[in-house]
Each structure stands twice: as structure tokens, then as C-alpha cells.
Design a protein that fits this description.
This protein is mainly α. Helix content is about 85%, strand content about 0%.
């Protein structure tokens, strides 16, 4: 399309219609058109159209280059950032897993500590009960010892009196009296036995 437009520009226009700027080289011909399109002849319109098309083509090339550069930069950024993000997410997952494991271990330890505390409290209660029973037993033993002491003290006098009375008995006379009683009762027993 450029070649057709260049051919049109290189053709000679009628002498009355050709401006001096058109006869100049191509670089000079690319001057901004300040006339409204209604006042331009066909050659000027084609030249303005060509200039616009060339400018649009340059802008399109610049835009394409910029978009390509942006796409390359974006692709490089994605290629760099995705592994980093994946690594960071994996580390976060590992940390979260470790935290969850630690929380479960802490919960288990807490339940064990609670169980040990309850067992220790039960043991203390049992020890307190045993101490109370031991104290009661000691009190009962003390009372029994006091009773035995009282019994011994109470009966010591009676026992001594009994021992004195037993010592005062004349066993020979007692034995003689039993023999005499036996002699008296013996014939009576024979009499009633018949």
C-alpha cells in the first residue's frame, strides 16, 4: 500500500494545482496539513492520508513493541514469582501443619496435666483420709491405753487385796475341812444314791 501511495505522490499534478511543498523531497512533503479536507485536492488528500497511515503504522509498531516488551516482562515476572509464591505457600503450609501438630500436642499435654492434677488431688484426699483415720486410730489406742491403765489401777487394789486374802488362807486347815466335809457327806451320798 505504501508503494501505491508513493507512486501517486510522485506523479506530476497539473501545474496550477501542484503546491511547492509537493515538489520537494519526500521528507519535506510530510508536513502537517493545515487545510480542512474540503479545500484539498485529490493529491493533497492522498498525501495527508499517506502521512496519517505512516504515523498510524509507526504508532502501531511502537504499540506492538511496547505490548511485546510488557508481555515479556510479565512472563519473566510470572516465571520468577510463581516458584517464589509456591515456595512461600509451601512454607506457610508446613508452618501451619507444625503449628497444628504443636497445638494438638499441647492439648494432649494439657489433658495429661489435668488428669495428673486430678489424680494428685485424689491421692491427697486419700492421704488426708488416711491421716484422719490414723489420727482416730491413735486416739483410740490412747483411749484404750488409758482404759487399760485405769483398769490396772482400779484392779490393782482389788488384786492386792485378793492376793493378801489368798495368802491369809490356811490351806492345811482348808484341806482338813474339805476332808471332814467329805467324810460327813460321803455316807449321805451313799444313802441317797440307793
Amino acid at each position: 500500500m505504501e508503494t501505491q501511495a508513493e507512486e501517486i505522490l510522485t506523479q506530476e499534478a497539473p501545474a496550477e494545482e501542484t503546491p511547492k511543498a509537493v515538489e520537494a523531497p519526500m521528507e519535506a512533503a510530510v508536513e502537517p496539513v493545515e487545510k480542512p479536507p474540503a479545500e484539498m485536492n485529490e493529491r493533497e488528500l492522498l498525501q495527508a492520508l499517506l502521512e496519517r497511515q505512516i504515523q498510524n503504522e509507526k504508532l502501531n509498531r511502537i504499540t506492538a513493541i511496547a505490548l511485546t516488551a510488557m508481555a515479556v516482562v510479565l512472563l519473566i515476572a510470572v516465571l520468577i514469582l510463581i516458584p517464589l509464591a509456591t515456595h512461600t505457600l509451601n512454607q506457610a503450609y508446613d508452618t501451619l501443619s507444625d503449628a497444628q501438630t504443636t497445638a494438638l500436642q499441647a492439648q494432649t499435654a494439657l489433658s495429661r496435666v489435668t488428669e495428673l492434677s486430678e489424680n494428685a488431688q485424689d491421692s491427697l484426699d486419700t492421704l488426708n483420709l488416711l491421716a484422719e483415720r490414723a489420727e482416730e486410730s491413735l486416739d483410740a489406742v490412747d483411749a484404750m491405753i488409758e482404759n487399760v491403765n485405769g483398769l490396772v489401777e482400779d484392779n490393782t487394789g482389788a488384786l492386792q487385796e485378793t492376793i493378801q486374802k489368798l495368802n491369809a488362807i490356811d490351806f492345811e486347815k482348808f484341806s482338813n475341812s474339805i476332808n471332814q466335809l467329805n467324810e460327813v457327806i460321803g455316807p449321805l451320798a451313799k444313802l441317797f444314791a440307793r
